[in-house]
Write a structure and sequence with these properties.
By secondary structure, the protein is of the alpha+beta class. 24% of the residues lie in helices and 25% in strands. It has a 9-stranded mixed sheet with strand order 2-9-5-4-3-1-7-8-6. Strands 10-11 form a two-stranded antiparallel sheet. Strand 10 and strand 11 form a beta hairpin. The chain binds a DNA duplex (16 and 16 nucleotides) through loops.
DNA sequence: ATTGCTTCCTGAGCGC
DNA sequence: TGCGCTCAGGAAGCAA
């Protein structure tokens, strides 16, 4: 399940292999995967890739022909470059045809992933509504106090709201709360400034560690060369039976997701 | 406004 | 072997 560290890993991989390449066309093999949000009915060549960035869980590609290509991997989406490995995916939903006879394949078993094409300068609501980046100076305990201070919802579900913090998903929310010693069921308004500080610090730490390990591959996540990440070897609670101290973990459903936590270490 | 449930979708894993 | 069931979950949409 690609979250911020996985998307960052893909972005870095893409920069190494397709920056400055020209996209001749994006071919869609599934009806809802690629959508055109420009007023241009028949898209020309999309131009040369000027930049590849990440915002939250979105990949943002800018081209010199004035296009912005947004990619969201959702749960099972993968971007795989045929110059680094042979494409083995059996669920290729879209193909970026690059000048010079290379392909970037968007493989997505469950079809929830999206590729959206915009014009530079046009409003992109998907990006504009996102909250702060976990690794930016804007994520502070004061900010979280302002956003969560009068919320009754459990902190775990608040952490998943992309309009507040952009990029966290189920796995990292569980890991951050374990490292912070906070129960995922705690209502937002019950979190003290001191505890919010801990969450901020642990959020940064977990994101940085996971990026340095090329993300987490628990099932589908792969890099652009189809290699796995390594952070799954350092998870402390997600899909575990016991926490590192040997306490039996509990699993509850919060916001429709399996939430792993230690009733002893997390209060 | 806030909260939580349903939907989209496929494959893995399980019990029988 | 094969069937039917449950589960995995990001985010939009909807209902209370």
């Amino acid at each position: 399940m690609p979250e911020l560290p996985e998307v960052e890993t893909v972005v870095r991989g893409l920069r190494d292999c397709i920056l400055n390449r020209e996209i001749e066309k994006i071919e869609s093999h599934y009806p809802t995967t690629v959508t055109n949000h420009t007023k241009i009915k028949s898209l020309p060549s999309l131009g040369r890739i000027l930049s590849i960035d990440r915002r939250g869980k979105y990949i943002v590609i800018n081209t010199d022909a004035g296009f912005v290509i947004l990619v969201h991997l959702r749960m099972t989406g993968k971007l795989v470059f045929d110059g680094l490995c042979s494409i083995t995916g059996t669920h290729v939903r879209a193909t970026f045809h690059l000048k010079g006879n290379n392909k970037l394949c968007f493989d997505d078993t469950r079809t929830f992933g999206k590729i959206k094409i915009f014009r530079q300068g046009d409003s992109i609501p998907d990006i504009e509504k996102l909250g702060v980046e976990p690794l930016s100076y804007l994520l502070t305990s004061e900010y979280l106090k302002e956003k969560w201070g009068n919320r009754n919802a459990p902190v775990k579900s608040l952490m998943l709201q992309q309009e507040v913090i952009a990029g966290l998903g189920n796995i990292y929310a569980c890991e951050i709360l374990y490292r912070s010693g906070v129960s995922p069921l705690t209502p937002g308004k019950k979190l003290s400034q001191k505890v919010l500080d801990k969450i901020v610090v642990q959020t940064r730490e977990v994101m940085q560690e996971a990026i340095s390990m090329n993300g987490t591959s628990v099932s589908d996540f792969r890099r652009v060369d189809e290699k796995t990440g390594e952070f799954q070897n350092f998870l402390r609670v997600y899909q575990k039976k016991e926490c590192p101290k040997g306490h039996t973990l509990r699993i509850v459903r919060i916001a429709g997701r399996s939430t792993y936590f230690c009733p002893v270490c997390q209060r």
